[in-house]
Structures are given as structure tokens and as C-alpha cells.
Amino acid sequence: MQADVAWSRLRDLILDGTYPPGARLTEMEAAATLRMSRTPVREALRALAADGLVRPSGRGVVVVALERDDLGEAYQVRAALEALTAELAAIRQREGHIAPAALAALRDLADETASVTARGRLPEAAGLNRRFHGMIAELAGNTMALRTLERIWDQIQVSTLRSLAPPSRPAHVSGQHADLLTAITEGRPERAARIARSHVLDTRASTRTEE
């Protein structure tokens, strides 16, 4: 559907910072940018509002930035859900439900994320970081948790970019990824959950200096 295409493209433009928090966007402007009619764009903007990425403003919408308290709550929910998905992934691994190729792909992604982060390519690293956690959520086999996480990840995308900026963070993040991968591979759900939760809360703590 055209509305789905419009939603996907506008979402990408919001997440990559083309339309930063506070930017105002009208149906006409969005339709011109996407070279589409206003009807699917209107539906897309409604969907983005439901996702929490924009809010209605006059004849258009404004890209939403989470307030400090809301951002803290988002990280709390993210920490709980990522602990859950890490735990479930480790349980499924222990029970033999995860293919070796899937774990190998997760390991390769962790290595690529660490390499890109160490080279200071932060926007690319943030995208890879999200893919890493997304793959764990997929391995968990809980569709509702994955969908909820995707919405939360969207809302705190900018914070994810900032969290990698301090000099001490890249090595710390990569180390936590490696520990999390090991816990899942060894089928240790409690340890996997604990590492995942700590990782998210550490990320939140690192963003406070940027607020």
C-alpha cells in the first residue's frame, strides 16, 4: 500500500535526523518530498502519530522529542523487555531451538558493531547496535515484545546515537555485547537477562550528560 511506503520513508527521515525533534511537517511538504499524493501521506502521518514519533500541530505535525522523565520511562521499559528477550533467547538456545547459523550471524553482527564503533563511525554503529538487539529479540520468538521494542527504539533513536559519544562508551558497549552473546550461546537465561538490563540502564546513564 502507498500509505505503508509513505510511513516507512517518513519514519526513516525522522530516525536519521533529516526531520529532527521539533521540526514541523505538513501533508503538502511531505507529499512533495515523497512525490506522492496527499492521501497516503495523510494516513502515514496518522500512523506516525500513533507510533509516538510525531504529534498533530495546526495543519501538520511536529516531530516529537521525549521529555526527560518520559525518556527515563522509555529506558526502563526497554531494559525490562530486552532482559526478557535475552532470557527467552537463552532458553530457546538451551532447548536447541536456535540454529547455529543464527548464532553465527549474531556473532558476526556483534563483531561488525564493535569494529565500526571503535572507528568512531557513530551513526552507522548506532544502526548496527539496534540490529544486534533486534536480532536477539527475534531469536526470543516473542512477536509482541519485538513490536513493542521497535516502537521504543524508534522513540529513543537520538539518545542511542548520543550514548556512544563519550570516549569510555565504545569499548564498554562492545564488552557488554560480547558478554550477552556468550550468555545466550551458553544457554544461561538469568545471566543473559541481567547483562541485557544492565546494558540498557548503562546506556541511559550515559545519555544524562547530554540532556
Automatic annotation (TrEMBL):
Domain of life: Bacteria
InterPro entries assigned: GntR_C, TF_FadR/GntR_C, Tscrpt_reg_HTH_GntR, WH-like_DNA-bd_sf, WH_DNA-bd_sf
Keywords in alphabetical order: DNA-binding, Transcription, Transcription regulation
Record GO terms (molecular function): DNA binding; DNA-binding transcription factor activity
Domain HTH gntR-type: 1-66
Record carries keyword Heme: no
Protein name according to UniProt: GntR family transcriptional regulator
Organism of origin: Nonomuraea cypriaca
Lineage, opening ranks: Bacteria, Bacillati, Actinomycetota, Actinomycetes, Streptosporangiales
